[in-house]
């Protein structure tokens, strides 16, 4: 039986919709909404690896899309792209009530972390987190799983790792974790899979 749970965040605990940000920002940019993310996405790799801080990211992204508005409006629009996955939040609450240690492992950035930790109380239930921008590594790089093992008080062979991306699950499995793929539309199937571990 697993005694610890390690969660991805995006499209597991909270859904992600960048079109919400693009729609808001485009009114102050020189490109159409559908052009914004293709232009900004390359910069997000450096943001999520911690090579670019939030202010430098916003400045560089603004230049790429011809954004002339307030940087703080860009930041808040870029941050507010999430919706809570209520079935998963309930599952996490149930695990916490049973005393299970809970941890996070996510490719993310400071802008998003500050937003979702404040917006969704479920994140207050976790005992620790490894965020890509803080360690300079991103999944599925095997090295980030080594950081997890050396930093968090967990035994991989007794830790369920939950992620929506197959490549990340494969990397987690290779690192010794009990990797379980997740899709919000098949939450019940996920619970059935867990019951067999």
Strand content: 5-15%
**Rg, Å, rounded:** 18 Å
Distance between the termini: 6 Å
Would you identify the CATH architecture of the largest domain? 3-Layer(aba) Sandwich
Largest sheet data? 5 strands, parallel
Mean pLDDT: 97
Give a count of the beta strands, DSSP E runs of length 2 or more. Answer: 7
CATH topology of the largest domain: Rossmann fold
Give the low-pLDDT segments: none
The CATH homologous superfamily of the largest domain is termed HAD superfamily/HAD-like
The rough form would be described as elongated
Can you give the helix content as a percent range? 40-55%
Tally of individual helices: 10
Indicate the structural class.
alpha/beta
Name the helix and strand elements from N-terminus to C-terminus, one letter apiece: EEHHHHEHEHEHHEHEH
What is the strand arrangement across the widest sheet? Answer: 5-4-1-6-7
Regarding CATH, which class of the largest domain? Answer: Alpha Beta
Total count of domains: 2
